[in-house]
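Posting here for the record, re: adenosine-5'-diphosphate.
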Amino acid sequence: MLNLKDPSLFRQQAFVAGQWCDADDKTTFPVTNPATGETIGNVPHMGAAETRRAIAAANEAWRGWRAKTAKERSAILRKWNDLMLANADDLALIMTVEQGKPLAESKGEIGYAASFIEWFAEEGKRVAGDTLPSPWADRRIVVTKEPIGVCAAITPWNFPAAMITRKVGPALAAGCPMVVKPAEGTPFSALAMAVLAERAGVPAGVFSVVTGDARAIGGEMTSNPTVRKLSFTGSTEVGRLLMQQSAATVKKLSLELGGNAPFIVFDDADLDAAVEGAMASKYRNAGQTCVCANRIYVQDGVYDAFADKLVAAVRKLKVGNGLEPGVTQGPLIDEDAVKKVELHVADATEKGGRVLTGGKRHALGHTFFEPTVIAGVTSDMRVAKEETFGPLAPLFRFKTDEEAIALANDTEFGLASYFYSRDIGRIWRVAEGLESGMVGINTGLISNEVAPFGGVKQSGLGREGSKYGMDDYLVIKYLCMGGI
Ligand code: ADP
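Prediction output follows.
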C-alpha cells in the first residue's frame, strides 16, 4: 500500500534489545491514516514486561556504549544522520500517512529530526570537565561529567521523528542508552528510524522502541529504578502524572509540556511580516504544535488591517490529503482534536466572537477542519486559557504595551511567545517582560537544533537541542584529589 523505495523501513514489530519482536501475548493495535481513515498497519501492544526487558537490555548495553570514546559514538550517530537524510523521501511518506501533515512538512521534519543527531554527534565530542581552585593546599578539585545512565522517553504524535531524535541524539552522544515509547498514532516513523539506527551500527539495547499500552509502559519506565532519567514531550496533564510517578525513584526529568503561546502585533509592526509569521506559527502542522500561536493580540490601531490581511492569507491555504501536491493543511490527528477546535469556536461565538473565515469541519470530512480566524475574542473565552491545538486563530484587541504583556503572561504556561515591533526599546522591554522560555521577535519560526528549546512555569523542565541540551543527560562527579 505504501509505495516506499525501501519497503524494509516499514516495520510492524517493535525493536527491543536489538530484536524485532511481537508483544508477549501477540496482541497488536491498528494505526490509521487520519486523511482517509484507513488502517496503515498494526504494531505490537506491549506492556510492562516487554518494557522491563528493554530497560534491562539498555542497562546491559550501557557499559559498552559509555566505554566507547565520544568520537566513536559520534561516528555511529553521524552515519544514522546520513541514513535518515538518504531515506528522507520514504521517512516523509511514512510520516504523512500516519500523521497527516503535508509531504513537504514531513520532509522538512526529517531534515530537522536528523539535524539533532548530527548536532549532538558533534556536541558529544565537546563534553568537558573542569578543574577548580582548591581552598586546601594539599588537595585538588576535579569535575568530570558522566552519562546519567539508562534513559526512557515518551513522545507525542505531532512531530513523530523530531521529538524522538531531540532526546535520543543527546542521550546516545552522552553515552546513555534509551528506550522510547512513541505515540500510539505514529509508531511507524519511530520504527523506521530504529531500522536505520541498527544499520548505522547502534549496538543492540542502546536504542529500543516499545509500542503499546501507554499507561503500562509509562508505569514501568517511571517505577523501574534502573531508569535514571525520563524525557517526556506531551500534555501538561500527563507530564504531571509522570512527574508524580517518577518521585518514588527520584528520576531526573525533562518535560516539554503544553504551551499557550501569545503572538503580539504592535502598531509599529511590519504587518505583512506579522501576517507571514502568524501563518507559519499558527497553521503549520494544522495548528498542532506546542509552540503554535494560540492567542493573537493585536494593537487597536492596526487590528482591522491585520485581520483583513490575515484572512486573505488564510483563504489561500489548501486543505487536503498531505500526499496531494499543493496541500498546505492536512487533517487533524483524530476526532477528539476536531471536537476541541469545535468547542473553542462554539464557546468564542457564544460569548461574542465573530468568525471571519472558516469555523467548521471541512467538506472533505474525516478530521479535516477549515482554517479559521475569529475576531472580537476576549479573556473570558476558552481559547484564552486552553491550547486549541488546531487551525484556529483568535484575535484579541489591546491598547497599551503593559496591557499586552499582562495579557500574554496571564496563563499557567510559558513555552513560546512571539511579537512584532520595530522599536528597539519596546523590543527589549517586551522580550524581558514575557514569561516564556522562548521568544520569537519579528519571526514566527524559532525551532532549530542550535537553540535551546523549552519552557518555564507549567510548560516544563529542561532544555532540548543546543549546547545546553546535553546537560540533561549528564551528571557531574566531583573528585577530591588529596595527598598532594
Ligand atoms: P497529546 O494530547 O499530544 O496526545 P499526551 O500527553 O496524551 O498528549 O500524549 C503524549 C505521549 O504520552 C504519547 O506517547 C502518549 O501515549 C503518552 N501517554 C499518554 N498517557 C500516558 C500515561 N498515563 N502514561 C504514560 N504515557 C502516556
